[in-house]
Amino acid sequence: MLIGMIAVLGSGDGESLQILAAETDVGIVVSNKADAGILGVAEGLGIEAKHIPGEKGVFERKVMGLLDDKGIGIVACLEFSRILSKEFDENYRVLSSHPSLLPELSGITAKESYKQAIEKGLKETGITIHIVDEGVDTGKVLLQEKITISPNETVESLRRKLQKVEGRLMAQAINMEKPF
Question: What's 83's DSSP letter?
């Protein structure tokens, strides 16, 4: 199924974006953080990159204007550090990734998820791609993939392992025939 151009909202380093962009048509990357690595990665890939500052309402109105101008209806959140409003979620098909096998370790940041997985002595964790709804990490799960946590795992090594899965799994979810 050809779904057209997508937008990415992200606040992280952009490692997952490289994989996602190779498998989908990313038209714009937006971050609320001026120093987010994802903006530089997007520019390096020839993708329009925008930093949009401001509180939640201001940020969302500006993003919605950009998406509407470009005719984008699907939004992928990669390490995005904001909770979107119900209005935003209702106007776009919004997918998010979470670095755990939801519902485990839900409602926390990616960095905290890596840390807790190791501290709790989990033998495996993974990536979940889910539809964004009005809750936090509560939307319908589309895809999950497990990875093994090695005995000498660090937060950084776990982050790298999960990011390799994140971009590929997000692309797979976006390209599903009927993901929503």
Answer: P
Q: What is the C-alpha separation between 115 and 81, in angstroms, rounded?
A: 17
Is pTM beyond 0.70? Reply is: yes
pLDDT tens per residue, range 143-173: 999 999 999 999 999 999 998 899 999 999 9
CATH superfamily of 6-174: Formyl transferase, N-terminal domain (3.40.50.170)
Q: Is 104 exposed, middle or buried (0-12, 13-18, 19+ CB in 10 A)?
A: middle
Strand partners, 129: 97, 143
How many residues comprise the chain?
A: 180
Classify residue 99 by burial, with Cβ atoms within 10 Å: 0-12, 13-18, 19+: buried
